[in-house]
Amino acid sequence: MSDVEIDLEVTCAVPSDRLWDVLLKPELWWGEDILLEARPGGQFHEPWHDKEGQHHTRGRVMEVRRGSLLRLSWADDDWTFRTEVQFLIDAAGNGSTLALCHRGWQDAPPDHRATLLDNHRKGWAYHLGNLLSAAEKAN
Questions:
Q1: The pTM is what?
Q2: For residue 86, what pLDDT is reported?
Q3: Which domain holds residue 22?
């Protein structure tokens, strides 16, 4: 793991095809307002709030390999740089493994980089927990 990259991996008892299906339905695990058009060139949009007000994270789907890989660009509207998020799903016995890599932080302003990395690392850990819970409940 790099100091300008977020790498998280989770393993679960959910078959990889079910985990993939739930990944592509962010309303089940991320939030009702998330837009994810899971095709190359498709849009990604996450509206969110904090103590400073309303924000928007946007991106484009860069690559999709059905059942295994989703890669998208990622940036808040007020950022001067872009990052990239990759979800990689592999079968693991009767379950599956999901690896998330969020890279590109080397281009973040140095005085904000550590905070951005920490906030996004915590956010991804939270959202991946929700994803696994949703996948376990899916039929």
A1: 0.94
A2: 98
A3: 5-137
